């Protein structure tokens, strides 16, 4: 499937911004210059620039040359849940290696988060995520049994679990994310190729359906050279609206962000 021209152009400009070839505060080339460089008409160029504006990467317009506002593009809710999509958006190659998956009784804390009875079973998995072939993040994921059972027979090295569950009709509607730091345990150290007790960025997530039933309780641990967290707040007429972002940095990590309203 051929990538639409304006998306390819947006990807090229996004990459230049991410790599610092066009720094924050600098102007992009004019539309005329971009048309000449890429040998295209103004239509695709304007569509590409509009996409970068929607991501919060550039500002300007109305006759003014676009200016780089940020090197961290925002992403929709779907991309925030999907490591695979976040990597792809920013031009990196995602990968994964399933370490284990089982149907078992979760510990009391996870059972409580999923609103499960103490004897209820859940599907739990451990999966290593890769960026450009290098260890980046370790997932510990727990799903209610009725949600996670299809995963037992799926190829979880093929891509995004979020995308797979969505294709199965699972209603992944909202998520609450908590970020903190944690010391690497022996499993983290072995799979992420870091020293034991070294600091990792931890993301704990509870995902719910559209009526508020918790479906997933997960804990992701990132190498500190792969991920940082950026939080931005926007004034709104809704007092409870907070916009939160997760930004990737580092030598081989995607510089991307996700925004979740009300998370």
Automatic annotation (TrEMBL):
**Per its UniProt entry, which superkingdom is the organism in?**
Bacteria
Question: Sorted alphabetically, which InterPro entries does this protein's record hold?
Answer: Bact_HTH_transcr_reg (IPR050679), Chorismate_lyase_/UTRA_dom_sf (IPR028978), Tscrpt_reg_HTH_GntR (IPR000524), UTRA (IPR011663), WH-like_DNA-bd_sf (IPR036388), WH_DNA-bd_sf (IPR036390)
Ranges of residues in domain HTH gntR-type: 3-71
Q: Which SMART domains match?
A: HTH_GNTR (SM00345), UTRA (SM00866)
Q: Which UniProt keywords apply?
A: DNA-binding, Transcription, Transcription regulation
Which CDD domains does the record cross-reference, listed alphabetically? WHTH_GntR (cd07377)
What name is this protein filed under? Answer: GntR family transcriptional regulator
């Amino acid at each position: 499937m051929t990538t639409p021209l304006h998306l390819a152009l947006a990807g090229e400009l996004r990459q230049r911004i991410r790599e610092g070839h066009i720094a924050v505060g600098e102007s992009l080339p004019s539309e005329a210059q971009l048309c000449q460089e890429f040998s295209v008409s103004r239509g695709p160029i304007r569509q590409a620039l509009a996409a970068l504006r929607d991501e919060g990467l550039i500002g300007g317009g109305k006759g003014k040359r676009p200016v780089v506002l940020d090197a961290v593009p925002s992403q929709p809710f779907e991309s925030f849940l999907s490591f695979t999509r976040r990597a792809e958006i920013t031009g990196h190659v995602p990968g994964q290696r399933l370490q284990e998956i089982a149907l078992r009784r979760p510990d009391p804390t996870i059972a409580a988060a999923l609103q499960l009875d103490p004897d209820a079973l859940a599907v739990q998995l451990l999966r290593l995520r890769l960026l450009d072939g290098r260890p980046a993040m370790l997932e510990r994921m727990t799903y209610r049994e009725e949600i996670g059972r299809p995963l037992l027979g799926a190829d979880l090295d093929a891509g995004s679990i979020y995308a797979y569950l969505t294709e199965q009709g699972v209603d992944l509607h909202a998520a609450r994310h908590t970020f903190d730091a944690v010391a690497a345990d022996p499993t983290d150290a072995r799979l992420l190729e870091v020293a034991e007790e070294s600091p990792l960025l931890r993301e704990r997530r509870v995902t719910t359906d559209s009526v508020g039933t918790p479906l997933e309780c997960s804990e992701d641990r990132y190498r500190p050279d792969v991920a940082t967290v950026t939080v931005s707040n926007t004034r709104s007429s809704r007092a409870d609206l907070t916009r939160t972002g997760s930004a990737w940095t580092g030598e081989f990590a995607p510089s991307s962000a996700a925004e979740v309203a009300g998370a």
